[in-house]
Amino acid sequence: QYGSDDWKAKLAKSKFTKWPYATPHAKGNIALQCHSPKEKVWYRNVRIKEL
Questions:
Q1: Helix ranges restricted to H, the chain
Q2: Exposure letters 28-51 (e unless 16+ CB within 10 A, then b)
Q3: Residue 35 — left, alpha, or beta (φ > 0 → left; ψ -120 to 50 → alpha)?
Q4: Segment 28-47, tens digit of pLDDT
Q5: CA gap 24, 32 in Å, rounded
Q6: Where in the chain are the domains?
C-alpha cells in the first residue's frame, strides 16, 4: 500500500530515497509512455480521478 509503513521501509532501502515524488500525496504530472521505440502506443478515454 502506497504510504504504508512497509512501503516506507522499502523506499528507505531503495535508490529513490531522495526522490521528491516518493512521498505520499505528492502532486504533479502523470506521464504515459512506451519504453520500446519499435512499438506504437495509443490511448483512448483516459480518465483520472482523485482517490
A1: 5-12
A2: eeeeeeeeeeeeeeeeeeeeeeee
A3: alpha
A4: 788 888 888 899 999 999 99
A5: 20
A6: 1-51
